[in-house]
Amino acid sequence: MSLLVLGGARSGKSRYAQARAEALGGDFVYVATAQALDAEMGERIERHRADRGPAWTTVEAPLDLAAAIRSGDHPDRVLLVDCLTLWTSNLLLADRDIDAATGDLVTALAEAACPVILVANEVGLGIVPDNALARRFRDEAGRVNQRIAAAVDEVMFVAAGLPLRFK
């Protein structure tokens, strides 16, 4: 079982994804892509960790997400990846091959024996960014979301805390 949960910032997508994961039962592993590059992000990460509680183990994977899925894969586990948007940003800023990394992620998802739930921001619904880097990020994030949506079993969109089934 694989699920992609899309939505805007503060839409409730992470809360929805966590609830779906916990409904499955098992050993919960949170695969975090965020990096605490400043104090505010560090505080966000700690708040999210506290909100998940002690039932969750956290694995940090800012760049090699496919390897984290492969190493965490076990039939009794549920993997929750939060989020693909930060992962895409990390790859872009590290000058990594986003297309190749996404292909590796798609392969890892297809091979996974455990449920994998992925969270991503839908960044293409806003205004056209005013600079080349921001436009490239928006485009890359959109392409990643399309490839992952095509590869997973289910896609949900969350807005204002309300889930809508896309696939």
TrEMBL record:
Its EC number is 2.7.1.156, 2.7.7.62. Pathway: Cofactor biosynthesis; adenosylcobalamin biosynthesis; adenosylcobalamin from cob(II)yrinate a,c-diamide: step 6/7; Cofactor biosynthesis; adenosylcobalamin biosynthesis; adenosylcobalamin from cob(II)yrinate a,c-diamide: step 5/7. CDD domains: CobU. GO terms for molecular function: adenosylcobinamide kinase activity; ATP binding; cobinamide phosphate guanylyltransferase activity; GTP binding. InterPro entries: CobU/CobP, P-loop_NTPase. GTP binds at residues 7-14, 32-34, 49-52, 60, 82. Keywords: ATP-binding, Cobalamin biosynthesis, GTP-binding, Kinase, Nucleotide-binding, Nucleotidyltransferase, Transferase. The active site is at H48 (gmp-histidine intermediate). It catalyses: adenosylcob(III)inamide + GTP = adenosylcob(III)inamide phosphate + GDP + H(+); adenosylcob(III)inamide phosphate + GTP + H(+) = adenosylcob(III)inamide-GDP + diphosphate; adenosylcob(III)inamide + ATP = adenosylcob(III)inamide phosphate + ADP + H(+). The keyword Transferase applies. It is an enzyme of class 2 (transferase). One of its GO terms (biological process) is cobalamin biosynthetic process. Belongs to the CobU/CobP family. NCBIfam families: PRK05800.1. Catalyzes ATP-dependent phosphorylation of adenosylcobinamide and addition of GMP to adenosylcobinamide phosphate. This is Bifunctional adenosylcobalamin biosynthesis protein.
